């Protein structure tokens, strides 16, 4: 009996569909002026991959420096710029757009039975704003960099550094609008363009997760925008809103900044959670356990996510009363994530499970996100946070959720929908190896950092006491392995564009409207608007349908 | 601690010696570690639980063993279970953490005050007796110490990991943290809030001494003038004397015994006079006018350093009567203990 | 069983009377869907604008609470007559915009173009008055920065008739806080003015298109949605005016 559910067409006779969104029009100009959500998704995929590796190079240099306790590889100012740029690039140029702008853009219209997003031109504008903002950030890098940290703490960023804060700030401001427009597009599309019969509770959970993330994008990002405007004004014309000598309050910046930046982390993780729902279901051949609970948990995370921002400020002099309220709310926001983890685990119960690469990434996600999420509870606990905050414990915590969680989910999603997006399969054995290498490398990199954090090693440190070296060396060794684990997919996915096996419509035998159309899809996605009568993850419907012929445009 | 103290000490010693765990060098450290181990426990239990479920299901329901999946919609009972149990655990953690937080940030009444001024990229500590240190801090065991801290420029954060304490050091207002050291030795001081180029160089050492050694240290490292004596000098040289002369008809209120008292302002509100209030009143007098007086005090913003402000505050704290104000400066014993925290000064 | 791809019936053919406007975007099933999506999108965008201005309003509320005397004195420097005129001007331009929407809906091209032009004129009028207000601040050294001058707050001018100062004099440290008020004044009204400029640029474009007849043949969505934006900018001013100009004002 086979241990895989992959079902490919006969490779001797299979070809890619004659008409699809990739060959619909020729020439680079057609790509740069497209309104097709799928093409825009691919434009985004190329851009964010590029910036991921830029951010990764910065990470590599940081870990290289931290091999030794002395500040011997680069100058202190350079090191400060490295971690600042690593954060800015990874957060704003990679993580925030990652799943929504690539997989979300590509799939959400198809998943709900629509021909495109509500506002295709705004979708394209969103990509151009991303590139324009990225250009500002690259300019800041080339001109000498920013060294304020991605958090732009005032008054350091407004009065005490002479690096390119304004350029970088403006870049992030512009990228913020890219994010807002993506979220706006998703919300309107999901509300207004579902196919007949596609009720809210028949939508795939991936759509619910992106919907929740879009609410955060739309409501939270403008606050970051105005905060950056104020920082730029303070730096350029010296208004005094954050300057204590002029009557301003630097703590005001903290409140405004974290009001966005905490929801931002949920913007980053929710779409990844959506991927996990899809993958767990497909590779267990089972509907997701507790669909309603998972859907409402996504929205609950988005809602509660707006009310916990000051847990980044527990030791900064917020009142005891505030500290209590925010700590309590932080505990509450942890619960929906726990609910989801258990629902995913129970999706496997009585399923029929196979372990293709996307499933490996999803399983890795569950373990690593559990660790990352629970260490968040450490930090939400007031007295514990005093010792742990601003140390490597925080660095380990957010890398567990962001890399161990989100990045694994992103890679899982890319692998899962790769055959749909390009029509070809990736090489399975090599991809499984990559996943395992990434998992091992990741844990080796970041688990020692929890230990370093409790020992007290501060974050953003260029040099450190000698007794912390062993853990740092382990961490750097892990980073090397992790780097390999991330490079491999880049190579074999590119290889698969030409040499991968032809995938056919539904290599995973999955439910979902996207798997009922050709790979790659037509520009207009569907030949006729689908009429939906099946529930989400309806494997019985799928089994019945597979017995019928499915026509495609060939 | 509910586990045997012997076992606990053994565990800590083993962990500390393996360089994987910081020393417990303050009274609060074991409390913090207890919470940490509880959190570790629930993390491990949670991880094992999730891991067992996932691995268990993966093996038991792999395709070869279970070729046909059974479609299950869900289970309200299970949803309730894994909502309520994590919530309960997280709420326990919340309460425990809140109690610890209040323990760490509320000093006991007899805490000895030391001022810390942070600036790019060094820590300056000022003992009330006039001892000044840079990047070091000498403290005795068995005595609660309160650090009153302020930054001269950007955000810093004062951290002593082995004591499990940390507090942000902010420009424009005092922040405080307290500890009581238990074991002589030297321990790291770190700045943990990124503050520019030499952030990782803004480190130091806290030296914990026995009470006798500490006494020896204070006697040998004094600069001759206590903070209060410095403040007395500033009080005269900056002209504070002119209005705060202590006479009945003076233009400014008498400052005798004002520290620790409850003051009524012109706008009717009542304030407790602590270090932060005194500092603010010197820099922003128009918002701190005592009832019955005219708003004529000029601001000293920009004319006095944070150290100068500390000296003035210390001086005002020592003012029990107006007598000292009329005295000329004399050198007195330089290792006087500082007055106690508000609430104890005035009976 | 239903097969979702090879549908056996057409969703639109005989059901709606299908007058396909040239602006019908084909990823929408019907024009109604397109219009609803457009309006929904604009409302969502306005929600983001509320969050955007919200940060400034929060900062304002905080500092007004902390430095009330400085805010009162600084606010008294703003000209109520000019502010009131501007409020009237902006409301009037909003009125013309609403008429423009009506004109588009009843397909009266000439009226539509006229209303759009009037909206633009009054919008420009608003900006003109703001220019004079800003100029006055520049001349009095009330623009935050190195040349900010607090002397007028410490030593207010004496009223010739009563012989008393026109304002309560402020202590120097409180007088310095007037700079915070002006920082927020310029940030908030400046951001508002920026939104008006964007709106006016769009108005020029829409007027040209209206003149071409784009909006008088049934396709009114851009005019309707732009009107929402313009009214929003109007509402922001309705909040800014009392908060900035009318602190502590009493009837004469």
Q: Can you describe this structure?
A:
The complex is a heterotrimer of chains A (554), B (347) and C (252). Chain A is an all-alpha fold. Chain A is 66% helix and 0% strand. Chain A contains 17 helices and no strands. By secondary structure, chain B is of the alpha+beta class. Chain B has 3 domains: 5-105, Helix Hairpins; 112-220, Sandwich (Immunoglobulin-like), CATH 2.60.40; 227-326, Cytochrome c-like domain (Cytochrome Bc1 Complex, Chain D, domain 2, Orthogonal Bundle). Chain B has a 5-stranded mixed β-sheet with strand order 3-2-1-5-8, with helices on one face. In chain B, strands 4-10-9-6-7 form a 5-stranded mixed β-sheet. In chain B, strands 11-12 form a two-stranded antiparallel sheet. In chain B, helix 5 packs across helix 8 (306-318). Chain B is elongated. Chain C has one domain: Up-down Bundle (Four Helix Bundle (Hemerythrin (Met), subunit A)), CATH 1.20.120.80. Chain C has helices at residues 31-66, 68-75, 80-105, 109-139, 151-154, 172-176, 178-212, 221-245. The longest helix of chain C has 36 residues, at 31-66. Chain C is elongated. The termini of chain C are far apart. Chains in contact: A-B, A-C, B-C. The interface between A and B is large, with 96 and 87 residues.
Q: Which CATH top level class of the largest domain in chain B fits?
A: Mainly Beta
Number of domains in the coordinates of chain B? Answer: 3
- Number of structurally distinct domains of chain A: 1
What structural class do helix, strand and pairing data of chain A support? mainly alpha
Largest interface: A-B, 96 and 87 residues
SS field, number of helical segments of chain B: 9
Shape of chain A: globular
Helical content class of chain A: 55-70%
What spatial order of strands do you see in the largest sheet of chain B? Answer: 3-2-1-5-8
Global shape of chain B: elongated
CATH superfamily of the largest domain in chain B: Cupredoxins -  blue copper proteins
**Which fold name fills CATH's third level, the topology of the largest domain in chain B?**
Immunoglobulin-like
The DSSP helix count of chain A reads 17
Radius of gyration computed on alpha carbons of chain A: 23 Å
Spans of chain B of at least 5 consecutive residues whose pLDDT stays below 50 are 327-347
The helix-and-strand class of chain B reads alpha+beta
Please give the radius of gyration of chain B in angstroms: 27 Å
């Amino acid at each position: 009996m086979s241990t895989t559910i992959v079902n490919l067409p006969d490779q001797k006779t299979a070809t890619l569909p004659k008409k699809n969104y990739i060959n619909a029009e020729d020439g680079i100009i057609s790509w740069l002026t497209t309104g097709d959500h799928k093409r825009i998704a691919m434009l985004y995929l190329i851009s964010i991959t590029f910036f991921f590796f830029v951010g990764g190079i910065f990470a590599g240099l940081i870990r290289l420096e931290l091999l030794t306790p002395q500040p011997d590889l680069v100058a202190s100012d350079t090191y400060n710029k490295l971690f600042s740029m690593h954060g800015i690039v990874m957060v704003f140029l990679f993580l925030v757009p990652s799943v929504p702008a690539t997989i979300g853009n590509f799939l959400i219209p198809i998943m709900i039975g629509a021909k495109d997003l509500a506002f295709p031109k705004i979708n394209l504008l969103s990509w151009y704003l991303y590139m324009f903002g990225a250009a500002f950030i690259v300019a800041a890098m080339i001109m000498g960099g920013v060294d304020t940290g991605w958090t732009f703490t005032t008054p350091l960023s407004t009065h005490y550094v002479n690096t390119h804060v304004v350029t970088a700030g403006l870049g992030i401001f512009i990228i913020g609008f890219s994010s807002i427009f993506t979220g706006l597009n998703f919300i309107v599309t999901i509300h207004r363009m579902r196919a007949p019969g596609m009720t809210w509770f028949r939508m795939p959970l991936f759509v619910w997760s992106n919907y929740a993330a879009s609410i955060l994008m739309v409501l939270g990002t403008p606050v970051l925008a105005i905060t950056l405007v104020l920082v730029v004004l303070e730096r350029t014309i010296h208004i005094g809103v954050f300057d204590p000598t002029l009557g301003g309050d630097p703590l005001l910046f903290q409140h405004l900044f974290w009001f966005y930046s905490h929801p931002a982390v949920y913007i980053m993780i929710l779409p990844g959670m959506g991927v996990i729902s899809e993958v767990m279901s497909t590779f267990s051949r089972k509907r997701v356990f507790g669909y309603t609970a998972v859907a409402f948990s996504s929205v609950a995370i988005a809602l509660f996510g707006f009310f916990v921002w000051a847990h980044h400020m527990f030791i900064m002099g917020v009142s005891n009363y505030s500290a209590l309220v925010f700590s309590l709310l932080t505990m509450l926001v942890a619960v929906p994530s726990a609910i989801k983890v258990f629902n995913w685990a129970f999706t496997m119960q009585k399923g029929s499970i196979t372990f293709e690469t996307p499933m490996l990434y999803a399983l890795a996600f569950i373990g690593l996100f559990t660790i990352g999420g629970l260490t968040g509870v450490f930090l939400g606990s007031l007295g514990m946070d005093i010792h742990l905050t601003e140390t490597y414990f925080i660095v380990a915590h957010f890398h567990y959720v962001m890399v161990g969680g989100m990045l694994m989910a992103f890679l899982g999603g890319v692998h899962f929908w790769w055959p749909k997006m390009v029509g070809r399969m990736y090489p399975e054995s090599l991809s499984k190896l990559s996943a395992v290498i990434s998992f091992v490398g990741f844990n080796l990199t970041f688990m020692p950092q929890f230990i370093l954090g409790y020992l007290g090693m501060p974050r953003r440190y260029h040099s450190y006491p000698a007794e912390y070296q062993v853990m740092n060396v382990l961490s750097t060794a892990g980073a090397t392995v992790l780097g390999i684990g991330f490079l491999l997919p880049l190579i074999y996915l590119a290889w698969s564009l030409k040499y991968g096996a032809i995938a056919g419509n539904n290599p995973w035998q999955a439910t979902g409207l996207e798997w009922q159309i050709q790979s790659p899809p037509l520009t207009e996605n569907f030949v006729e608007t689908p009429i939906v009568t099946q529930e989400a993850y309806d494997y019985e419907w799928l089994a019945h349908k597979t017995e019928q012929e499915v026509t495609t445009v060939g | 601690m509910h586990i045997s103290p012997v076992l606990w000490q053994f565990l800590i010693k083993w962990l500390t010696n393996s360089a994987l765990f910081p020393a417990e060098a303050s009274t609060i450290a074991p409390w913090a570690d207890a919470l940490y181990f509880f959190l570790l426990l629930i993390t491990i239990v949670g991880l094992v639980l999730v891991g067992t479920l996932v691995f268990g299901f993966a093996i038991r329901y792999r395709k070869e063993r279970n070729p046909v999946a059974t479609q299950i919609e869900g289970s309200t009972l299970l949803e309730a279970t894994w909502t309520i149990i994590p919530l309960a655990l997280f709420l326990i953690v919340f309460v425990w953490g809140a109690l610890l937080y209040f323990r760490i940030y509320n000093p006991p009444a007899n805490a000895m005050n030391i001022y810390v001024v942070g600036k790019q990229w060094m820590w300056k500590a000022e003992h009330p007796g006039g001892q000044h240190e840079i990047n070091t801090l000498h403290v005795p065991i068995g005595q609660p110490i309160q650090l009153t801290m302020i930054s001269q420029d950007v955000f810093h954060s004062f951290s002593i990991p082995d004591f499990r304490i940390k507090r942000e050091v902010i420009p424009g207002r005092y922040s405080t943290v307290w500890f009581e050291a238990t074991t002589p030795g030297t321990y790291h001081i770190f700045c943990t809030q990124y503050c520019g180029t030499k952030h990782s160089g803004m480190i130091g050492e806290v030296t914990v001494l026995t009470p006798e050694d500490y006494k020896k240290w204070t006697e040998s490292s004094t600069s001759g003038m206590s903070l209060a004596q410095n403040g007395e000098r500033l009080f005269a040289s900056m002209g504070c004397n002119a209005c705060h002369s202590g006479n009945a008809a003076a233009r400014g209120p008498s400052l005798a015994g004002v520290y620790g008292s409850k003051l009524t302002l012109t706008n009717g509100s009542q304030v407790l006079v602590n270090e932060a209030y005194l500092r603010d009143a010197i820099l922003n007098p128009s918002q701190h006018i005592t009832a019955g007086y005219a708003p004529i005090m000029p601001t000293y913003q920009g004319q006095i350093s944070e150290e100068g402000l500390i000296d003035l505050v210390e001086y005002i704290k020592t003012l029990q009567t107006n007598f000292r104000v009329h005295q000329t400066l004399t050198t007195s014993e330089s290792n006087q203990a500082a007055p106690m925290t508000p609430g104890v000064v005035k009976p | 069983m239903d097969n979702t791809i090879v549908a056996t019936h057409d969703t639109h053919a005989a059901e709606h009377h299908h007058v396909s406007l040239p602006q019908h975007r084909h990823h929408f099933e019907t024009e109604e869907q397109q219009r609803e999506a457009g309006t929904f999108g604009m409302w969502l965008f306005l929600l983001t604008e509320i969050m955007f201005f919200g940060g400034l309003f929060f900062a304002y509320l905080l500092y007004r609470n902390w430095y009330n005397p400085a805010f009162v004195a600084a606010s008294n420097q703003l000209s109520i007559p000019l502010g009131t005129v501007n409020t009237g001007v902006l409301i009037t331009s909003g009125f013309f915009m609403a008429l423009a929407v009506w004109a588009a809906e009843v397909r009266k091209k000439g009226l539509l173009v006229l209303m759009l032009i009037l909206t633009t004129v009054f919008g420009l009028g608003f900006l003109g008055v703001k220019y004079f207000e800003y100029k006055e601040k520049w001349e009095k050294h009330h623009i935050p920065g190195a040349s900010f001058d607090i002397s007028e707050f410490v030593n207010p001018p004496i009223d010739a008739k009563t012989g008393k100062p026109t304002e309560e004099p402020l202590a120097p440290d409180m007088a310095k806080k007037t700079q915070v008020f002006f920082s927020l004044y310029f940030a908030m009204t400046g951001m508002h003015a920026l939104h008006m400029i964007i709106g006016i640029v769009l108005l020029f474009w829409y007027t040209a298109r209206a003149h071409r007849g784009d909006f008088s043949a049934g396709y009114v969505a851009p005019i309707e949605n732009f009107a929402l934006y313009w009214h929003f900018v109007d509402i922001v001013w309705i909040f800014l005016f009392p908060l900035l100009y009318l602190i502590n004002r009493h009837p004469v």
